[in-house]
Design goal:
The protein contains 17 helices and no strands. The chain is mostly helical.
């Protein structure tokens, strides 16, 4: 016999899933792994710099170690993108995480065991950059293929909010741990974080991804990705724009920012506060994008690139600490609006089987000029003065962003509002990249998935690379 109490309990047993329908198992695993790696990697950035300084190195040695990661990242990105579209992406990601675990673990052992030599630190950092070059394109494609339907932009925004929050916490925790227990142990924690993240990613399900058809080889895949990239004016023009934006903003924040803070703001503390305000802004921007869905994706996103000129201008004045923090916060909000809009556009317009190759060209274009800009920052200051150099950085951001707005596809590409099969070339290249207003792709785009560094670019999903992309 069924009692009235039992009958009353029945509705409570039928509960809605805790996760939204778009947050499937893959999405949850990717988000958890991204949080873990961001917590570890942002602290490791600080630890690596202090490990170099603790052995008697100077600022130039710190720059050499950073460059050692950047060079293989640039060299192998395109190959990594082609490999990720030929092999199961989750296997590429796990293998890359394993390489990062081994290289970072060896780095930690050297620091804890004595005085590591500069060439040893550069070699291990280069191995980490190589792993990142293969990881990032695979993770970009994996994240996007795990999201479907009209809630894609919300999914990307929540992912980025978790990523940015973990990055902010990781940097604060890492700095405190370096001061308390030394850089070697922080590097060891980062190695463990890579192992945990790789373990999580090994459980990703790729059964929903159609098997890749045999192609004509790695070079043929690279050529195919290049055609996909250059066939969409909105895509290659924005990547070209960010090759300049990421370079000059990176130079301003990594070279001129600390110098202005030392000379005019009171030292490293105020500059750290300003960077923290930027991190808080990125979290706020991602939260905003869980609610706001601009119809003209790239127009809204590109307009939000203009505030990236503001930090360079604020340092050129220079503004007091409070004003600089306000500028950095607004900049963080703006870049997240662009980042979510960009990821949504790629998710909507790029065929799933080509996501990693296109992502590789995106990453390559975005970071290729960073080493050159950083190297030229010092000579530029000596030639024209720091203030003029900073105003030049701000001006370049504005000029290239205005130029992109002249591209019709950037102004006109629209968000699709109804679920439909993901388009191939017809949704992007054939129609000039302008999405219709009545359809939306169902299969999505880490994430670039992992990015590390003070300047991060829009598509990233977590922070494993030292030179990141804005966002």
């Amino acid at each position: 016999m069924t009692s009235a109490a039992d009958s009353a309990e029945r509705p409570r047993r039928t509960r809605r899933p805790r996760r939204p329908d778009w947050a499937d198992r893959n999405y949850t695993l990717l988000a958890a792994a991204a949080v873990v790696t961001n917590l570890g990697s942002h602290g490791a950035l600080i630890a690596a710099a202090f490990a170099v300084l603790d052995t008697g190195g100077d600022e130039g040695d710190v720059g050499l170690v950073a460059a050692a990661r950047t060079l293989p990242l640039v060299l192998f990105l395109l190959i990594g993108g082609a490999v990720a579209d030929r092999l199961p992406r989750h296997r590429v990601m796990v293998a890359a995480n394993a390489l990062n675990f081994l290289s970072q673990g060896a780095f930690a052992a050297l620091v804890l065991g004595g005085e590591p030599r500069l060439w040893q630190m550069m070699l291990l950092t280069a191995l980490g950059g190589t792993g990142q070059a293969f990881f990032s394109p695979a993770a970009e494609g994996m994240l996007m293929s795990s999201v479907s339907g009209e809630q894609a932009s919300r999914a990307f925004a929540l992912f980025r909010m978790a990523m940015q929050g973990a990055a902010l916490g990781g940097a604060a925790l890492g700095g405190a741990m370096v001061a308390a227990i030394g850089p070697g142990w922080v590097l060891a924690v980062d190695a463990v974080a890579f192992a945990v993240a790789g373990s999580l990613r090994s459980f990703l399900d790729v059964s929903h991804i159609p098997p890749r058809e045999p192609g004509g080889g790695l070079l043929a895949d690279l050529r195919d990705g290049w055609r996909e990239f250059t066939g969409r004016p909105w895509l290659w023009t924005i990547v070209a724009q960010f090759s300049v934006v990421v370079a000059v903003v990176g130079a301003a924040e990594s070279v001129y920012g600390p110098l202005v803070a030392r000379d005019s703001l009171g030292g490293a503390g105020p500059w750290g506060l300003a960077l923290g305000a930027f991190g808080a802004g990125t979290v706020g921007g991602a939260l905003l994008m869980t609610r706001w869905k601009p119809r003209r994706l790239l127009l809204a996103g590109t307009l939000c690139v203009f505030p990236l000129a503001a930090p360079s201008a604020a340092l050129a004045v220079p503004l007091p600490v409070g004003g600089l923090c306000a500028v950095m916060f607004v900049t963080g909000v703006a870049i997240e609006i662009f980042g979510v809009s960009w990821m949504t556009a790629l998710h909507q317009e790029i065929p799933e089987e080509k996501l990693s190759r296109v992502s590789a060209y995106d990453w390559f274009g975005s970071i290729a000029m960073v080493p050159l800009a950083t190297a030229l920052a010092g000579p530029a200051e000596q030639a024209v003065g720091r203030t003029t150099a900073l105003w030049g950085c701000a001006t370049l951001v504005v000029v290239v962003t205005v130029a992109v707005l002249f591209v019709p596809d950037v102004r006109n590409l629209t968000r699709r509002t109804k679920a439909a099969a993901r388009g191939g070339p017809k949704s992007g290249a054939a129609d000039g990249g302008r999405g219709s207003a009545d359809t939306e792709g169902t299969v999505g785009r880490l994430g670039s998935a992992d990015t590390e560094g003070s300047v991060r670019r829009l598509g990233s999903a977590d922070a494993e690379g030292t030179v990141g992309r804005l966002g």
